[in-house]
Each structure stands twice: as structure tokens, then as C-alpha cells.
Design goal:
The protein is an alpha/beta fold. It contains eight helices and ten strands. The strands form two sheets. The protein has a six-stranded mixed beta sheet, with helices on both faces. It is globular and about 50 Å long. InterPro entries: AAA+_ATPase, ABC_transporter-like_ATP-bd, ABC_Transporter_VariousFunc, P-loop_NTPase.
Length: 230
């Protein structure tokens, strides 16, 4: 389980996160949603250890963030990766050295799915293909917790469907996916838990299936209700 406890983060005068707390359970797909600039990406970066909170803490399976538990976390950012001068094959070889759970077979299976070859230099790829490579590098780490920041950016709708199929294929009962996205319709039937953030605060946490069954509402419907009420 990931525990986010009373986390606050400020950038100069802007409070990106304001004393937020929530838990992310194993084996679930959790979506952190909201409008632009509400703190979604900052939340993922704090969980992954890329950004330090001003207050509060994050626990991964009861432990504080440290190099000892980084193999449990894989973070796929919304910015370009640092392997631009590598070929895809070289980036896989690099990952194999530094990540003990790296799965080369999975990496090449996903590479084939995205119609890419390992001799391609990453700096020569289109934005969409760079996005595909980032997703492969994240998922092939076989981490317990995979964090995805806008994973569908630059990926066409048909490849999104294939990626979603792979995502559900590879997640097991002990793994979790935590993602932010504006493409809410894409994850409507996959999301287990939804965390809504507005102006750095938690607006609502709900189970997507329960909302569909008990209230007859989609995730977007529920977001409209919450944000309209505020």
C-alpha cells in the first residue's frame, strides 16, 4: 500500500498541494483526476521521490522513500526521457543493468505491439513514438507500483486500445497502477479508485464501479457533480 499522509507542497506563493492524505491499495488502478494545474503531476512526483514535500510523508508498504525501495516504483513522466542519444535496444540494456526486475521479454512484446524496432534512435522518433517507448520502459520494470503521468499523450486512439489491453494483461493482484489523464473516457471501465483534486486539495475519493452501479453515473458525471457543487 502507498500512504500519502498530510502532504503539502508549495512553489513560491503557489500551494500546489494542501495537506492531502489518501491510500493506494495493491492490485488496483487508481486515477488522480482534476482540471489543469490542480496538483496531479506534483502528487505523482512526490510519491516517486522526484519532488520532496514541504510537509507530510509518503510510505511505500510501510517504509519511507529511499533507494532501498525504488525497485517497487516505476514512474512514466509527461516529459521527455533522458535516453535521447540511445537506440531503443541500448535503452533496454541500460534498464536491464540498473533495475533488478527488468523484463526484456515484456519490453520486446510491447515494442512489437507499438510497431517499433530496437535499432531506432530515440532522438529521431516522433513525439508519439517517444511516448510509446516511455510506456515500455515503465511497464517492463515489473514494479509493484507503476505511476503514469498523462500516458496517452501523443498516442493515437487505436494504439491506446492496444496499450490498455496490455496494461490489464500484465497487472496482477499485487501490482498497482496510479495514473493521471485527461482522456477519462479511455480509462472509464478500467479505473477502480478515483481521487479528485482541486486547487491542491482532495475533493472526493470514490470507487468508480460503485458510483456506476449505485448512482448510475460515469466518472465524468461524478466530476461534473463535484466541481459544480464547489
Amino acid at each position: 500500500m502507498i500512504e500519502v499522509k498530510n502532504v503539502t507542497k508549495r512553489y513560491k506563493r503557489i500551494k500546489a498541494l494542501d495537506n492531502i492524505s489518501f491510500n493506494i491499495e495493491e492490485g488496483k488502478i487508481t486515477c488522480i483526476l482534476g482540471i489543469n494545474g490542480v496538483g496531479k503531476s506534483t502528487t505523482l512526483k512526490i510519491i516517486s521521490g522526484l519532488v520532496k514535500p514541504d510537509k507530510g510523508e509518503v510510505l511505500i508498504d510501510g517504509e519511507k522513500l529511499s533507494y532501498k525501495i525504488y525497485d517497487k516504483l516505476a514512474f512514466v513522466p509527461d516529459f521527455d526521457i533522458n535516453f535521447s542519444q540511445f537506440t531503443i535496444k541500448e535503452s533496454f540494456e541500460f534498464m536491464k543493468i540498473f533495475y533488478k526486475n527488468w523484463d526484456n521479454e515484456k519490453a520486446y512484446e510491447m515494442l512489437e505491439m507499438f510497431d517499433l524496432t530496437d535499432d531506432r534512435k530515440i532522438s529521431k522518433l516522433s513525439k508519439g513514438n517517444i511516448g510509446r517507448v516511455k510506456i515500455i520502459l515503465g511497464f517492463a520494470q515489473n514494479a509493484k507500483y507503476t505511476l503514469l503521468d498523462e500516458p496517452f499523450s501523443g498516442i493515437d486512439i487505436f494504439k491506446r486500445e492496444e496499450f490498455l489491453a496490455v496494461m490489464t494483461k500484465y497487472i496482477n493482484d499485487e501490482q498497482s497502477i496510479i495514473l493521471t489523464t485527461h482522456e477519462i473516457s479511455e480509462i472509464e471501465m478500467l479505473a477502480d479508485e478515483v481521487i479528485l483534486i482541486d486547487e491542491g486539495k482532495i475533493s472526493l475519493i470514490f470507487n468508480a464501479e460503485e458510483v456506476r452501479e449505485n448512482e448510475g453515473m460515469s466518472i465524468v458525471d461524478k466530476m461534473r457533480e463535484v466541481y459544480k457543487g464547489e
